[in-house]
Amino acid sequence: MAQKVEATAGVVPAPVENPNLKRAGAIMDKFISLANDKDPARWQQVAQQSRGEFNVTVFKNTERPFCLRLEATLESTPEEAFDLLSDPDARPTWDDVTNECGILEHVQPACRVMYMRTKAIFPTAARDVLVFGSARRMVEAGPRTYIYAISGYGDSHPKYTARKGDVRMELHVGGQIVSPDPAGREGFCRVVQIMDGDLKGWLPASVVSLVTTQAMPAAMGKVNSILRKKTEKLTESALIKFVEDELKKAGTVAPVALKPTAHAEAAPAATPSPAAPVSTLPAAPTPQIADVKTTPTALDAILNAVLGPLSIDPKPVRAAILLVHRSLSATQPWFVTIIVLMYAIRANRRKAVAA
């Protein structure tokens, strides 16, 4: 709640700085600092995809364990793209890694507490996180440039109950800046996303690679497909209008440290270092998480070790395990996996005895 200011006769009270807005401003400053950092020595390109006018590139920070930067050109107005990307309820519709996402509490003025829960990507557990954040119009960068920045909220919230077995990840800072197309084309926009955190728990390199090289570009491809289908191209952000109305009602001071970002000035994208391996994705239909699991993972090593000495072809067993795991990933995937393996070994032994 904003503090009340007693006015003296003939004196107009000055707006009061709200602690929630101060916290939101600090998060935005941190986000902008990472967004403005385009040093090629610190950002290694790990994925790139283009299809028509749409393109997306993912970079990994070489100095931070799990810090990713995504740059994309979308076939949409900045306002349409910003509202979709900043809507937690809509996230599961375009991000195959996200299982649940939503708003837990509106914190006055114009801030909110949210939760996000990822899917369990074999062979890892699902992750969840509570975040705090807000959105603003970046006037210094242009009237149609918007920022949405979030960071970790804390360990608990009265309206959220963590699922048993989930791993609580940390988010140092995340979000996006959406601005008009640097080339000045109407109906296009530029997106810079940052995710800097710690996924915690055991996480094989294959899963990290899946998220960075396939899941993130695929998600942005879905976003572009959703936006292209919209017949009415809005030029006013519903979220920004809500935020600015709330600030006016509260009579508070918005964060003053918002600085223009380099990408809003159409700076060239960072390029990978010469030794950096680049994974270029084909301009094909957007892959689903269930599809990309067919790449070699820790499961292959387990099956080869267990079934190899028994002269059992691991391919059909692997296919059966993944099919059952995808169907029951929300319940007990490891239990099902063990049962399938035991059944395969038992069936082979019976076959050997019969022979």
The tally of helices reads 9
Note the gap between the termini. 78 Å
Counted beta strands: 12
**H-E order:** EHEEEHHEEEEEEEHHEHHHH
Largest sheet: number of strands, sense, barrel closure: 10 strands, mixed
Compute the CA-based radius of gyration.
24 Å
> Overall pLDDT, averaged?
78
Tell me the structural class.
alpha+beta
Shape: globular
The share of residues in extended strands comes to 15-25%
Secondary structure layout plus pairing:
Elements: E1 16-17, H1 19-36, E2 43-51, E3 54-61, E4 67-74, H2 78-85, H3 91-94, E5 98-107, E6 111-118, E7 127-137, E8 146-152, E9 167-168, E10 170-180, E11 189-198, H4 205-228, H5 238-250, E12 252-253, H6 289-292, H7 298-307, H8 314-327, H9 333-354
Parallel strand pairs: 1-12, 7-9
Antiparallel strand pairs: 2-3, 3-4, 4-11, 5-6, 6-7, 7-8, 8-10, 10-11
Helix pairs in contact: 8-9
Q: What brief labels describe this structure?
A:
10-stranded mixed β-sheet; disordered N terminus; 355 residues; two-stranded parallel ribbon; alpha+beta; 12 strands; single chain; 9 helices
Explain what the structure shows.
- This protein is of the alpha+beta class.
- 33% of the residues lie in helices and 25% in strands.
- The protein has nine helices and twelve strands.
- It has helices at 19-36, 78-85, 91-94, 205-228, 238-250, 289-292, 298-307, 314-327, 333-354, and strands at residues 16-17, 43-51, 54-61, 67-74, 98-107, 111-118, 127-137, 146-152, 167-168, 170-180, 189-198, 252-253.
- Strands 2, 3, 4, 5, 6, 7, 8, 9, 10 and 11 form a ten-stranded mixed sheet that branches. A two-stranded parallel ribbon has the order 1-12.
- A hairpin with a 3-residue loop joins strand 5 (98-107) and strand 6 (111-118).
- It is globular and about 80 Å long.
